[in-house]
Design brief:
With 109 residues, this protein is α+β, with helices and mostly antiparallel strands. The chain has three helices and four strands; from the N terminus they run βαβββαα. It is extended, with a radius of gyration of 20 Å.
Length: 109
């Protein structure tokens, strides 16, 4: 998995979205991140210190490509602005799902 800065993450995410538009899909995951890369210590050992501020870990995956970025608390408004701009520009191929009424509901009302 490649850890990128926020602006490069959005650029690579656009490339992944363009590649996935034809025949595949991609997933995004948002997760609270405390900055620890080590696992939780065993019983009897001192616990990992609590962070002063939490960060947000964003992961994207498509087929075999995996990218990620860590967003700090002060960078959240700018990152969410870039992310919303990405969503508005790239998510235009969504199709509206047609609702099918069942016969039971049609006869009631």
């Amino acid at each position: 998995m490649v850890l990128l800065d926020n602006s490069n993450f959005i650029l690579r995410l656009e490339k992944i979205a363009n590649a996935a538009k034809k025949d595949s899909s991609f997933t995004l995951t948002f997760k609270r991140y405390d900055g620890h890369d080590k696992p939780v210590p065993r019983a009897g050992r001192p616990p990992l210190p609590k962070p002063a501020t939490y960060m947000c870990l964003i992961r994207a995956q498509s087929k075999s490509q995996k990218i990620s970025t860590v967003v700090r608390q002060e960078d959240v408004p700018t990152m969410m602005g870039m992310y919303s701009q990405f969503m508005k520009s790239k998510m235009d191929g969504l199709k509206r799902v047609k609702k099918v009424k069942s016969k039971a509901k049609a006869t009631k009302g």
